[in-house]
Amino acid sequence: MEQEMKYIYTVYKHASFSKAASALFMTQPALSLAVQRVEAKVGMPLFDRTCKPLKLTAAGELYIRKYVEIENLENELEQQINDLSTLQAGTLRIGGSHYINSYVLPPVLAAFAREYPKVRLELTEAGSSDLLQMLYDHDIDITFNCTEKPNDSFRRAPCFIDMILLAVPADFPVNRRLADCAFTSDDILEKKHQLFGTPGVSMAEFADTPFILLTPGNNLYSRSSRFFEEAGVTPDIRLQVSQLVTAWHLSCAGMGAAFISDFLVTSRTDKVLFYKISSPGTIRVFDIAMSGRHYVSNAMKAFEELFREWYGMNIPDREPER
Fold first, then answer.
1. Keywords, A to Z (predicted)?
2. Could you write out the three-class secondary structure of 254-293?
3. Of 88, 165, 167, 201, which has the fewest beta carbons less than 10 angstroms from its beta carbon?
4. DSSP element (H, E) containing 168
């Protein structure tokens, strides 16, 4: 029964029998027969096979909902038993974007591994919206999110702040006109851009500058759209990419201006100059998010405490908005 439920859940997650069969390392005919046996027991189909991608029927939605409840109970039981061992066992599943996993998490993960070497860490990389869905489905224990006014059931606590800067290739003509407002990489490394009173620039100054923007669905896409709207500018979009880090590297290669996080500037470069944008939306407060519906393990609590201490974010938790 447990194996059959896993089969059906995998088909649901991939919305395809062929993709699910590949993920399960079995043939598609064998998987189809297994699902058909369950449907025969239930007495009705679980998937609407006329739709592509596959969709659940009403019975299928009920089946998946109960499967998730069972999985959550099993996970909570395992976490509570592991907690009896005072962080001498267990698994902590963390999800982050490529930016978070590459530029924010590494020192915290290393510190956590040193302090709790017997807790197994699992790291998942995906887009922010996918990560929230994974958290809702209990596929991960922790993720990070900077939605400005979250309206969900997750348990959230502010954990770090970054600042959005505009990176502009050094040979672009606009830099000559805005020389007094530009920051070098040394300035960013010394955090001069964070000093009170440092100049910000309107996006109107970059009306003729080609841009590399993120694709819709990214938090930074929404914020950059707001920057342009506030300045009454329609951007010259040269390219759109799905990853913040990709936009940063393309800007360094001279492809166009890009909005980046100040966390990305980790070494000296003369390939780009940086500008503060005159908008409150450039400051992003990231929450560490956990499911508000399930047991919070000692490993999750220890990781949250270590993360917030590392980045100096000892701020009261946010209560979910209802």
1. Coiled coil, DNA-binding, Transcription, Transcription regulation
2. CCCEEEEEHHHCCCCCCCEEEEEECCHHHEEEEEEEECCC
3. 88
4. strand 155-169
Instruction: Encode pLDDT of 8-63 as tens digits.
Output: 888 888 888 889 888 889 888 888 898 898 888 888 899 988 888 888 999 988 98
Q: CB under 8 Å to 147, separation ≥6 — which residues?
A: 219, 287
- In 181-261 the beta strands, taken as DSSP E runs, fall at 210-214, 236-241, 257-261
Is the dihedral angle over the CA atoms 121, 126, 132, 134 positive or is it negative? Answer: negative
Q: Looking up tokens 């490529």, which residue turns up? A: 98
CB 264 within 8 A of CB 136: no
Higher pLDDT among residues 72 and 169, named by residue: 169
Cβ(241)–Cβ(99) under 8 Å?
no
Residue 316, pLDDT > 70, answer: no
Q: CB count, 10 Å around CB of 197?
A: 4
Place of tokens 């360094």: 252
Structure confidence at residue 86 (pLDDT)? 67
Instruction: Give me 235's structure tokens.
Output: 């951007």
* Each residue's pLDDT tens digit, 214-237: 999 888 999 999 999 999 999 999
Measured distance CA(19)–CA(75) in Å, rounded = 26
CB atoms within 10 A of CB 4: 13
Residue 320 pLDDT: 43
